[in-house]
Amino acid sequence: MPLASSSQIVTRLGTFAIKVRGTGPTVVLLHANPGSSCDYDGVVEQLAAGRRVVAVDWPGYGSSPMPELETFRGAMSYRDGLVGLLDVLAYEHGWGPFVLVGNSVGGFAALGAAKERPDLVTGLVLVAPGGFTAQNPLTRWVCRSLGRPAVAKRMAKPLARIYLRRRNETTCRALATAGTIAKQPARRDIFAAVWRSFAEPEHDLRHQPPPKVPTLLTWGRFDPVLPVFIDGRAAAKSLGVTLHRYPTGHEPYGELPSRWLSDVEQFLTGIPATNERWVIPGTDEAS
């Protein structure tokens, strides 16, 4: 079934708005909290040269509807929902397997999906992924504090001003998105719930085996949310990969797109378009 350039995909774990551009091997873009698929506007055109790019709005952001807060588990819901989304895109539309590009909570979700469904994932591009922060009284206090709606309302935009070090059209739009948290109670509650989930033991990936897929780990040198000299080093050690640094804050793809893309393009040229574990929909044979 063909999909429009902007579509909504219904899964058993929520509805995802996606934007699709280009054709070829599929790259899926996963944004941070808060944010939207627009956060990747500075790199979409280049990535879509010879590829299909699927930019995702997490439930509660962009054009995606709000999830049910009673059952919403923040980062873990996004992780599990991503698996459902990939299943639909693969088995109903034949778009698998996928390279997942994930920032912050998007990186955490991408890692979880790669572990859960290695048949659907051929590579990971991680941008300051969540899951590698030491869980101690201080970090849990920070996450739970930002997980309080009243604090989230006041802090979402000031925090974004701090972690988006460079200003351009893309990052100014991301700042505007962060500013909606104070004005929209539903999104404030989503933002807060995701922050609370960072303090959960299930969010800690430091001692878990990494997924067995090619992985590019990228990080901003001046990221105040997930410092590269702490979280970045922990992620590189846990994943067993090289850490690529950029003179940016939390979103190098938005802040310094050409520099970030040069490493990503080189990485993507080495990723096979197929996966020996991938089964063509409607057949019993691996592609």
Using only C-alpha atoms, the radius of gyration works out to 17 Å
What is the general shape? Answer: globular
Portion of residues in helices? 25-40%
If helices are DSSP runs of H or I spanning 4 or more residues, what is the number of helices?
Answer: 10
Q: For the report, how would you describe the main beta sheet?
A: 8 strands, mixed
Low-confidence stretches: 280-287
Order of helices and strands: EEEHEHEHEHHHHEHEHH
CATH hierarchy: architecture of the domain at 6-132 and 205-269: 3-Layer(aba) Sandwich
Classify the fold: give the CATH topology of the domain at 6-132 and 205-269: Rossmann fold
Structural class: alpha/beta
User: CATH homologous superfamily name of the domain at 6-132 and 205-269?
Assistant: Alpha/Beta hydrolase fold, catalytic domain
Strand arrangement, major sheet: 1-2-4-3-5-6-7-8
Distance between the termini: 20 Å
CATH C-level class of the domain at 6-132 and 205-269: Alpha Beta
Strand content: 15-25%
Q: Can you give the mean pLDDT?
A: 93
- Count every beta strand, where a strand is a DSSP E run of 2 or more residues: 8
